[in-house]
Design goal:
By secondary structure, this protein is of the alpha+beta class. The relative contact order is 0.12. About 25% of the residues lie in helices and about 20% in strands. The chain is elongated. Bound molecules: 2-acetamido-2-deoxy-beta-D-glucopyranose (3 copies). One 2-acetamido-2-deoxy-beta-D-glucopyranose binds near residues 338, 340 and 446. Its main location: other.
């Protein structure tokens, strides 16, 4: 039976009244904190005596995969304007009605996404004048949602154990669509966010299966700094055009990104030194690198040391990927590539580009906030949502360039070819976006 047939009973439950997203506005003590935050932003830059005062708040909240989205209707009192310049909008002193939308992220600061104020009774408020309400979705969206979910199940060949589970996944899918829409609205690049093969996972599941929140806190080996590049960076470079990059691989439900990042780098270094492109073994690192934590996470700097101590890497074919830790079966006579040392690279993106063009693909780690729902284009997440201090995913930079005026890094990921642009992520270059420059390193083959 096609998985989406399980949805038929759910479809009827989404018809009028049944979906729980059309909750009426309510007064609720949990709305106080986001309302105070919205007022704080609203009053920013004013003298304390000229600040507007919150009078009442109603609203609703939507629990999303990455936090809570509040839609608030606030009545506030604007003090008389003296001096008039102390008021944000001198014409609107007295009682105002405002609509605020506050996003409360688990790991980031609160963000005011929308602010619209007017005199009571005025018709310009977007949510009450027939515009699309940002939340909740309309009745028509529910049918559209089911269609999207069916497409998702077909595209990624997904199925669930039973109807209850299918319904639960549909709920998560809906929340994720909303989150992707918010990311889309806030993106400063050209990226498209939306349905991906991870659209049915909660934020917690996604983090647990695919990311390494510990990545930046693990004790790592201190690497010596690399000598700087000899010349300036060319305008663009891509190691895929020079045969130094293997096919995109798939780490599966295992936090082994660090191993993929490092084998990708060693594959490039070996190719540039010896002229042969070998697909090298991540499973060897998952099983045998005792400095790291297999599917529980690791650090590239540790993995280089492990490769040196073990005596090299076997090929993917000889020591193939299983996606969970097994007994170490590495044998030194099967090693087909070795490294002699490793280096830490510059935090300056221009210098990184120059080093990359001269020396090969670079292992990096970044904040993967923009990646769960990334589809294509140059991603440039709203900075407060993609903090450079929250590094949780290791990947491989293989090139850089400009796309319609947007400078980008071309980043090889390890989530299969059915994610992103054929497995690649394009991230804005030159603004330390998502901490892209925070942990760059490379193996050295003498
Ligand atoms: C789809 O998934 C089913 C069960 O999960 C599996 O048996 C089948 O081979 C998959 N088909 C494709 C095309 O991946
Ligand atoms: C449905 O599947 C979920 C996930 O596999 C399982 O936890 C749950 O017990 C199942 N429910 C029923 C009624 O079989
Ligand atoms: C690099 O490492 C390999 C393997 O461990 C070793 O055979 C080779 O001599 C080393 N090269 C240098 C220059 O030390």
């Amino acid at each position: 039976m096609a998985a989406w047939l399980l949805l038929l009973p759910i479809l009827s439950s989404l018809l009028p009244g049944g979906d729980g997203w059309h909750l009426p506005l309510a007064s609720d003590p949990t709305l106080e904190a986001p309302a105070q935050f919205a007022m704080e932003v609203y009053n920013r830059g004013r003298h304390p005596g000229a600040a507007a005062v919150l009078q009442s708040v109603q609203g609703r909240s939507l629990k999303m995969a990455h936090g809570v989205l509040y839609s608030l209707e606030v009545t506030l009192h604007e003090p008389p304007c003296s001096p008039p310049t102390a008021c944000k909008d001198p014409q609107s002193s007295g009682t105002l009605h405002c609509r605020f939308e506050v996003l409360d992220q688990m790991w980031a600061k609160q963000t005011l996404l929308k602010q619209d104020c007017g005199q009571p009774g005025a018709q310009h408020l977007p949510w009450s004048s027939g515009d699309q309400p940002p939340v909740p979705p309309s009745q028509g969206d529910s049918v559209q949602l089911i269609t999207l979910f069916k497409d998702f199940l077909t595209t990624y060949n997904k199925s669930y154990a039973n109807a209850t589970e299918t319904q639960r996944r549909l709920g998560i899918f809906a929340q994720n669509l909303e989150l992707a829409r918010q990311m889309q609205e806030l993106d400063q690049g050209s990226a498209e966010y939306g349905v991906t093969k991870f659209s049915d996972l909660t934020e917690e599941e996604f983090r647990t299966f695919y990311l390494n929140p510990l990545l930046s806190s693990l004790p790592g080996q201190a690497l010596r700094p690399a000598p700087p590049a000899k010349g300036p960076a060319p305008a663009a470079w891509d190691w895929r055009d020079h045969g130094a990059v293997t096919e995109v691989k798939n780490q599966g439900m295992c936090g082994s990104c660090w191993a993929f990042s490092v084998t990708g780098n060693v594959e490039g270094q070996w190719f540039l030194r010896h002229g042969t492109l070998l697909a090298l073994s991540e499973q060897e690192l998952v099983d045998c690198d005792t400095l790291d934590h297999a599917c529980g996470g690791g650090l590239p700097s540790n993995a280089y040391t492990a490769i040196e101590r073990l005596g090299g890497l076997e090929t993917e074919k000889d020591y193939s990927y299983e996606g969970h830790k097994e007994r170490c079966t590495f044998s030194p006579d099967k090693a087909r590539a070795y490294i002699n040392s490793s280096v830490d690279l510059s935090r300056d993106e221009e210098e990184l580009a120059a080093w990359l063009a001269e020396n090969g693909p670079i292992s990096i780690a970044l904040n993967a906030f923009g990646m769960q729902f990334y589809r294509r284009g140059v991603s440039h997440p709203f900075r407060p949502l993609c903090s450079p201090w929250f590094i949780d995913h290791a990947v491989l930079i293989v090139g850089y360039g400009n796309r319609l005026g947007l400078p980008f890094w071309a980043i090889k990921n390890s989530w299969g070819q059915d994610w992103g642009e054929e497995g690649y992520y394009y991230l804005y270059r030159g603004a330390r976006a998502c901490g892209v420059n925070a942990m760059a390193s490379s193996a050295i083959v003498d």
